[in-house]
Amino acid sequence: MTMRPSRVLSIAALVFVSACSGNNPNQPQSPVVPEFRGLVATPAQLAFTCVVPGCDSTLSVKVTSTVTRRVAIKRIVLSDENAEYTITSDQPAPFILGAAAEFNVDVRFAPVTAPKSESLKLLVTYTDASAEEGPDRIEPGELQIPLVKRLVGEPVLVANPGKLSFGVVAVGARKEEPVKVKNIGFGNIALQLSAIGDAGIRDLRVDVPSDVALVPDAGLDVPFVFTPNTEKYLSGTVTLRSPTPGVSPVQVQVEGTSFTQGRIALEPEETSLEFGEIVKGTQQTVTVRVANVGGTTLDISSLSVMDPDGRVKASFPDLMTSASLAPLQRIEVKVEIDGRVPGVIDVPLHIESNDPVRPSLDIPIRAVITEPKIATDLGLIDWGTVPQGWVVPKAVELKNVGYGTLTIKAVTFVGGQAAVFTLGNLPALPYTLARDERVAFDVELRAQAVANFTASISIESDDPMNQFHEVQLKANVGSCASSCPITNGTPSCAATGVCSIGSCNMGWYDSNLSAADGCECREIGSDPGGFCSTGVNKGTLADNGSNANHTGIIPTADDEDYIYFYAQDNNQVFSEDFDVNINLTSSDPGITMCVSRYDTGNSVNECYPDSNKTCGIRSLRRDGSYGREDGAMFYIKVYRTASSAPTCTPYTVTMRNG
């Protein structure tokens, strides 16, 4: 209705201007807008008002041709597939529409889901029906008819005021404040308001009349009642809800106090002010509020930060140095941190007042001024002289000695003869290190040719002062004849000229099969030997709790250690104390044992390693029996399983009787 007067006014104004201007040939002429030639829809859109599941409505649109030519209607479809809509045309497409003719399309809407936002259109595609070209021919086009949903009857719940203050209420007194609850929605749906209680806030009661229906624009006063039983500060949020689906709840913040004196509090947190990480060279500010939650004036006499480095400051507005707060009044405190020096900040915000309970309030202020810093355990890795053919790894350890998280981005070789060096055990990059955390990787030298080699490792990180940290590499590769150091052993160059271990010194072994560290494994004590006759004799263990133990190593795949003892069975009239326990312990899972038992009344020098043998075990128990002699020789063979690699890891065998 508002468009027609505006239209008439616009046309009348144009006529008036034309009449006053006359027929001046120099007057600019208005452009001529060509008449639209094609299809038009009446109405221009279809608006469905019943849009919830269970509705079933049909709307019609009339499509009219504005040309005196025949028009080919090619298709009538929806812009997107939607099973809730059904299209029915009185002339099924495709068809030929006569000159200046019309047809109708019915659109049925039967929703099965809740209303949702979507842009859906009814599309009618058309073109000129004549194959002949000419000035009257119409261009191909597409008529778009929007399908819209109008939600009617949506209730909206509001509460006023949203913040309710009871002020100061004496202990034992009662104070009531109303909150206006109103339905400001549209339509004819009544809003039910259920009883909601007091949201767990003690001494506060909220009374909602039962079976209240709020029609649009209707409201009621809900009484909020504060009856303090003790001195306290009341603060909380009461939520008002409606059982009507889809209606958002409203919240009312409540506050009041029954304290008889001024009481200090910090909002929003009293535990600490956590700034987190602050990049070096930047500043960060947090504003908190000091509140008087008591019933009389709170006088704040001092506000300070105990920071010897001067990086943290706290201030009241307008350069105030003190403040007086009425009951339930607040004042802002601005806390600023200047991140000029990296490091950890943990200092107290100190406030002094006339609060009788807490005259001094200290709130921790915590932050980390970040500047990660990379450090390596070695600035130069020097292999010294390495025999040709060896592969020698050396470890590089990276550490974050700065503050904040250090990110290792890349590790690459630069310069020199980097081809003889390789990286090993490098973690997946990027890799992050917290303060004092470490990570290590290996640099391997492959001594393929006799020469001196140098290179560098570049370690890229987000250390702002050292983004590309370098570690120098240096090695001298010599021939086997001139440089073949075998620690605790004798070298051998053999026919290939590669430095290797010829033999190990007595009591030393090459467990890891690497010539680079020579014969690195040393026998513990004396080797028991690989035969029963050369084994270690632990003597006689009486059945009174006697015990013995032996510690050794199995440094090679074929090494075997023999240990034996005699378990004595003393004569007992009313008891039997013979109880042999043998246990093997080692962190190397490949070490195991065989235990053999040879029954005899006395210790013998002969070996019977295959008598009553049990193998592949780590523990064995043999107890005695009444009325018979249980004495026996026990032979223990400690060896390595066939699938385990040799190590220099020790083992211990414990033996006990009784």
Please supply descriptive tags for the structure shown above:
1 helix; Immunoglobulin-like; disordered N terminus; five-stranded mixed sheet; 6 domains; 658 residues
Layout of secondary structure:
Layout (H helix, E strand, L loop, with lengths): L2 H19 L17 E4 L3 E3 L8 E9 L5 E8 L6 E5 L5 E3 L4 E8 L10 E9 L12 E9 L7 E4 L2 E6 L6 E9 L7 E3 L10 E3 L5 E3 L4 E8 L6 E8 L9 E8 L6 E4 L5 E7 L3 E10 L5 E8 L6 E4 L7 E3 L4 E9 L4 E11 L6 E11 L3 E3 L3 E8 L3 E10 L5 E11 L4 E4 L6 E3 L4 E9 L4 E11 L6 E11 L10 E4 L7 E5 L3 E2 L11 E2 L13 E6 L4 E8 L7 E7 L11 E7 L5 E9 L14 E4 L1 E5 L8 E9 L9 E8 L1
Keywords: Cell projection, Cilium, Cytoplasm, Signal
Organism: Archangium gephyra
Pfam families: HYDIN_VesB_CFA65-like_Ig (PF22544)
**Low-confidence spans: pLDDT under 50, at least 5 residues?**
1-33, 187-191
Work out the helicity level.
under 10%
Number of domains: 6
Q: Examine the secondary-structure arrangement and name the CATH architecture of the largest domain.
A: Sandwich
What is the gyration radius calculated from CA atoms?
47 Å
Q: Kindly report the CATH topology of the largest domain.
A: Jelly Rolls
**Spatial separation of the terminal alpha carbons:** 111 Å
Structural class: mainly beta
The biggest sheet amounts to: 5 strands, mixed
How many strand units?
A: 49
